[in-house]
Each structure stands twice: as C-alpha cells, then as structure tokens.
Amino acid sequence: MPYKRVIFITLLFTFHWLLYACGPMTIKDTTTQSYIPIQGWILELHQNVVIPPGRTRVFFQRGRILNAINEYEPHCQLRVRDISEQPQSVHADRFTIDRVFGNFGEVVSNDRIRLAAAGPTVIVGGGGGGNGENRLIYFYFMKLHADKQSHVTYLVCGGGSDMPALAKYPTIQDIYNSLGSYATLILPGDG
Fold first, then answer.
1. Residue 57 belongs to what H/E stretch?
2. Does residue 181 surpass a pLDDT of 60?
3. Which among 1, 55, 96, 120 counts the fewest CB atoms within 10 Å?
C-alpha cells in the first residue's frame, strides 16, 4: 500500500508542474479572486536594506525585517548573489521581475525548522529524525534585474508551512503584508 501512495504523490506533483509549464506563473489576488501573471512586474524597494555578514538574504515577515521567520506564516526573502564577511547593501531601486518559477520545500520533523539554500532551491528541514508530520511550503522565485545592482538575484516568497493537501502559494496580499513598507510589487503600467 505505501508503494501505491508514493506513485500517486509522484504523479500528482508531476501533473502539478506540467500545469505550470503550460503558461506563465500566476499569483492569486484575493480581492478579485483572480489569478494574474507575475512575470514582467516591478519590485520597487522603497528603502535601503542591509544583508548581514555571512548571509545572502534578508527575511521579511509581517512588514518587518527579521533574522528568522515563523515558517507557518507567509514570508519573503530578498537575496544577493555572493556571501560576504561584510554587510551588503541593497539600495532603494526598481527591479524588473524577468522570470518566475515555483518550488516547494518539504518538512518532516518534530524538531524546530531550519531553512537552507543552495542556488535557487530552498531546503527545509529539521533535526528530529524525520518521524514527524509531513508539511510543505510553496515558494515563488522571482528573478530580479536592476542595471546598477546586478548582485541582487531573487525575491523569494513562500506561503505558510502546512499539510500537503492544504499548503498553498502565497497570495499577492500575503506578499504585500510580508514586505510591508519596505517594498511594493507593481503591475506594469501602474507606476
């Protein structure tokens, strides 16, 4: 029986990714209950942000910059290309979103959650031996471009960690709430 479940889950995820491959990545707007494409949008960073030494990202949740997040709530992270022993600044600017793709992280643990990354893939895991409840976080990876800040690579936004059947990508409102007054996503032609 477990073997059939593994095959079913594999087919389900394959079908899920094939659907996304058929068209542009979209995001839910809960005010209109519609889905809109993200690619081509603009991320407007309203104030300078500092990436701490030894890190390649800064986290946004509930409109604040944090060193760690509550993985059960939507959140975003602004990423830079290289790790540095010195703080790295990302200056207020407009970044075009050149490409968007989705991904997910699987959480299987009773212990506290830790996020790690290698390139554009986020690995979510804990130290509890994997005997806990299976949970997922769905992420949007938005490839950023600004002529004067090529070290800035991605805005990554994730929904809250939840059981596989209930896990969702963040909505546009979740992203706005995570970024707060630090940044705004702008639809082309709106700003």
1. strand 57-61
2. yes
3. 1
- Global confidence as pTM: 0.75
Mean per-residue pLDDT, 12-23: 50
CA distance 16 to 36: 18
Find out whether 51 and 90 touch, Cβ atoms under 8 Å. Answer: yes
For residues 99-114, b (16+ Cβ closer than 10 Å) or e, as one string? ebeeebbebbbeeebe
Sign of the C-alpha dihedral computed for residues 176, 116, 55 and 70 taken in this order: positive
**Mind giving me the DSSP string for 99-151?**
EEEEEEEEEE-SS-EEEEEETTEEEEEESSTT-S-EEEEEEEEEEEE-TT-TT
Cα 191 from Cα 185, distance rounded (Å): 10
Encode pLDDT of 145-155 as tens digits: 999 999 999 99
| Whether pLDDT at 85 is above 60 | yes
CA dihedral (147, 148, 149, 154) in degrees, to 10, reads -20
Cα–Cα distance, 70 to 66 (Å, whole number)? 10
Q: What 8-state DSSP symbol labels residue 189? A: T
